[in-house]
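To whoever is on call:

I kicked off a structure prediction for a single chain this morning and the downstream step that reads the tokens threw a length-mismatch warning. I double-checked the sequence; it's 201 residues and nothing unusual in it as far as I can see. Pasting both halves so you can look.
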Amino acid sequence: MSSKIIKCNYTCTDTNHDLIYPKFNGNANNISIVMISESSPVEHSNYYYENNKGSFFLTTQMAFKDAGIDIKSYDDLTKTGIYLTTAIKCSKIDYLVSSKTIKECAYKYLENEIFGFDKLKVIMCMGDFAIKAVNYIFKKKYGVYPIKQGSTYKIRKEKHIYNNIRFIPSYTQTGDSFNLEQSKRKMIAEDIKLAFNIIKE
């Protein structure tokens, strides 16, 4: 996994072209859950694996605490088999990005991340960008959409399984909305509990 910040050469107009990868230094063979949120923050110090005081870690830590799991560091997440990343590797200019941008980023970067874990059992798609990106990747590689189309609150209780991987559509645990929308925060906690129950089976 690269930790370099580089300029993305894709000609999108809805991101800041400030591509960043997670600085993951753990053993890929220990990872059983990939948790994908939406996009990187404008301030890269808040991104995954940068430090334990960044906003991405703090809200993720709260989400796990809601699920009854005490996480004090990124090492704790790695030890429990969790890898964190984003569907979009650049920060957004506005609230939304185009499907073309999501697809381009998924094919160029996220696909290699996902398939770098041989013991993967669960892919948690934290938000619409992540759901779309994962569906694009699996459609390209296998010709199927593993996650059913529809509103997240309607499909999250259904089982989405392909190639012995369980796909969990959920809501993003990063960004300001995490603390504002308590109903979604509760559902995120339920989905994290589900992911842990699956890897224990």
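Update from on-call: the warning came from a stale cache, not from the record. Cleared it. Sanity check on the structure: Confidence is low (pLDDT under 50) at residues 1-5.
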